[in-house]
Amino acid sequence: MPLHDMVSWNVMIVGHVKSGKAQKALELFQQMQQEGVKPGPVTFAGILNACASVGALEEGRHVHKEIIENGCESDGFVGNSLIDMYVKCGSMEDAWRVFNRMPLRDVVSWTSMLLGHVKSGQGQKALELHQQMQLEGVQPDSVTFVGVLNACASLMALEKGRLAHEQIIQSGCESDIFVGSSLVDMYVKCGSMEEAWRVFKKMPSRDVVSWNVMIMGHVKCGQGHKALELFQQMQLEGSNIFVGNSLLDMYVKCGSMEDAWRVFEKMPSRDVVSWNVMILGHVKCGQGQKALELSRQMQLEGVQPDPVTFVGVLNANMLKKKQVTFVH
Q1: 1 burial via Cβ count (<10 Å: 0-12, 13-18, 19+)
Q2: Backbone CA torsion sign across 171, 181, 88, 22
Q3: 3-state SS assignment for residue 271
Q4: Quick one: CA torsion of 43, 46, 48, 53, rounded to 10 degrees?
């Protein structure tokens, strides 16, 4: 292109941010200015997202100065991007300064601040923000409710969680899969498995997170068999293999190879992670021969070993040699 205008630069910057190439986006932003092209609100929002994704706080502060110089700080889109950047970079003080100066604060502004306090371990402050936003006439959305429920879970505030649940029903957000998973998580962490079950059963679709929360909730309550039943049901509904691997890992680390084998045998598909967990589990238990048998079986089933598998096999061989030496 003989000439690059602001629109073409914006497309390139935002494209690199969306592709996970934040550093390249920052370089393009510098190059754009060197070529004398003035950035606009879309440019600033894109570059703030780049700073947020890599935790570049000082770079973000420098961009903030440029935003003020260009008279773009009052733009709602830019203001929300500034708050998001400061929150994700861990500077709630800077986020508050931007938030307090905003002429208009929408649900995105409030939700970003609320989530920032949840992330910082300030659940009570997050709940206060939830009340304040409603007093100012801003209605929470599904993302806000996820933050509120996470705050209730962190504080083990069951009654406040129940009140939030009532609001969620009234707003029509209960069918949202992320809200549903957060409700299940809140009830489990607050020790109310009965209410967690009620939400879980009503969910129109259940993702790997909701299944995982229910399974781990029963494990935490000492109901291992119920956890296994849930795992079987989850597999029948075709959920992600990640949950099975997590459950395998948990049983192996707890030293219960018997339960690990029950899960392993019921898994409809097993990847290299599943096999590695079992191989290393048997090595940990001093069963080198069994670990070697598993490594051979995984290859027969067409699963290619990775570096973790080789570490397990080497340890199994060393263990086997020690056992032979001891016998002799």
Answers
A1: exposed
A2: negative
A3: coil
A4: -160
User: Which residues make Cβ contacts (< 8 Å) with residue 215, sequence separation at least 6?
Assistant: 227, 230, 231, 234, 243, 247
Q: For residues 317 and 292, is the Cβ–Cβ distance under 8 A?
A: yes
Alpha-carbon distance 26 to 278, whole Å?
A: 44
User: Per residue, what are the HEC states of 171-194?
Assistant: HCCCCCHHHHHHHHHHHHHCCCHH
pLDDT at 271 over 50: yes
What Rg value do the Cα atoms of the chain yield, rounded?
A: 26
Structure tokens at 281: 């589990």
CA 174 to chain CA centroid, Å, is 20
| Rounded CA separation 28/8 (Å) | 11
CB 152 within 8 A of CB 159: no
* Cα 158 to Cα 14: distance, rounded to the nearest angstrom: 41
pLDDT of residue 326: 38
Phi first, then psi: give them for residue 232, nearest 5 degrees: -60, -45
Give the separation between CA 147 and CA 144, rounded to whole angstroms. Answer: 5
pLDDT tens per residue across span 158-213? 999 999 999 999 999 988 888 999 999 999 999 999 999 999 988 877 777 888 88
Under DSSP, is residue 161 helix (H, G, I), strand (E, B) or coil? helix
* Domains with residue ranges and CATH for the chain: 1-104 (1.25.40)
Q: What does the pLDDT read at residue 251?
A: 82
